[in-house]
Amino acid sequence: MKSIDVCLTPDLLHLHTIDNTIVVVTDIFRATSCMVTGLAYGVGSITPVATVEECFELQQKGYIAAAERNAMKVEGFDLDNSPFSYMDEDLVGANIAMTTTNGTLSITKAKTSAVKVLVGAFLNLGAIVNHLKSQPYDVLVLCAGWKGRVNLEDTLFAGALVDALKDEYIIGEDSALMAMRAYQQAQNDLLGYVANSSHVRRLQRLGIHKDIAYCLQRDLYDVVPVLRGSTLVNM
Amino acid sequence: MKSIDVCLTPDLLHLHTIDNTIVVVTDIFRATSCMVTGLAYGVGSITPVATVEECFELQQKGYIAAAERNAMKVEGFDLDNSPFSYMDEDLVGANIAMTTTNGTLSITKAKTSAVKVLVGAFLNLGAIVNHLKSQPYDVLVLCAGWKGRVNLEDTLFAGALVDALKDEYIIGEDSALMAMRAYQQAQNDLLGYVANSSHVRRLQRLGIHKDIAYCLQRDLYDVVPVLRGSTLVNM
């Protein structure tokens, strides 16, 4: 039987062996929600990079560049970190380079040894579930968190995946069990449940209510972003 | 206003500054439950050490020595890691040296910079709460976890502390919020809630049902174990 486990922050990734595993990276507010939205709206590819410098280099090579730090757009780049910015006709077929505080770093950390790296969000939850079920591999959900810390929204997404797969997968360690129970507690009112979370407080200070509500919607898009080499494409 | 935060495993302790903070270390199954029980039953002192070698050295100097690895007593030592072993008249006034897989390492990690290190368990929950309220410092609950991983029972204890202090303290990051909500979900049936946890499965294989039920009881003892130098004593 396959197993599913949850890594609550990239700072705990050293505890997991991921050789025979599909890693699903999630950063609900807002990196992976942007990626899913972009690919659903026809973006050609998204190249996640760990640093602002790498992002700038790709911008020089003609990529559309998106750089976020501390939830704000870095000066001189083309796109901010709102999923609504990715619903743009001008981006259809475009190659985007992206760096964010937490999400893209997690992707670059995961890609070293996993069988495959997928990008998940509530927006494509069902599509991820269906793809995982069709594969013979174990699953690790890697929550991007916030600067190494655990956060609520990524944990809830991890819990939603565990909940959806619990009948066909062995649940790994307690973090997976805790995430699943948190999701079961929260699922009928995700927005209310995250209302006091640190990241929502951080984003609300920036006035991004609309993004928060949007990123908590389930199954809007039937896309499965997968890392091919260094670039995310729709599977 | 004072704040309370939760560190879900010692592998995340680097994310916290603890200079102005009382750290409450917890390792419910079973190190800190043993310590609380021992001090409640009249043990003179307990010296937590990180390694089996250090524990052996103190045994040579006349300490009663307790060494546990992977939930079992290490050959050649005097005491195992069951709280019932600490309810012994022969231990009244004794100096005990103790090393365990997770709990004692967390204590030695915390003592470098905290204002004060306390040892908490469900058994002395109310006593810890009362002491913390009387102090002017922030609080960090440090969960010992299992070899770096997050576990359910320590998280629940952390959540119980956050829940008890939430009206007088600012709740820190999302890990504190998650722990509190897990405790609120679990509080009426702690034993049922942890039944599927990894550590309970581990302990049940070893046939230690009685210990599990015992360690989940609240407020049996009015003791506050505090680290003085390298040694835990009843405050």
Describe this structure in words.
Two copies of one chain form a homodimer. In chain A, a hairpin with a 2-residue loop joins strand 10 and strand 11. Chain A has one domain: putative 2-phosphosulfolactate phosphatase. Chain A has a five-stranded parallel beta sheet with strand order 7-2-8-1-9, with helices on both faces. In chain A, helix 4 packs across helix 5 and helix 5 packs across helix 6. The two termini of chain A are 25 Å apart. Chain A has nine helices and eleven strands. Chain A has 235 residues and is of the alpha/beta class. At the A-B interface, helix 6 of A face helix 6 of B. Chains A, B: Keywords: Hydrolase, Magnesium.
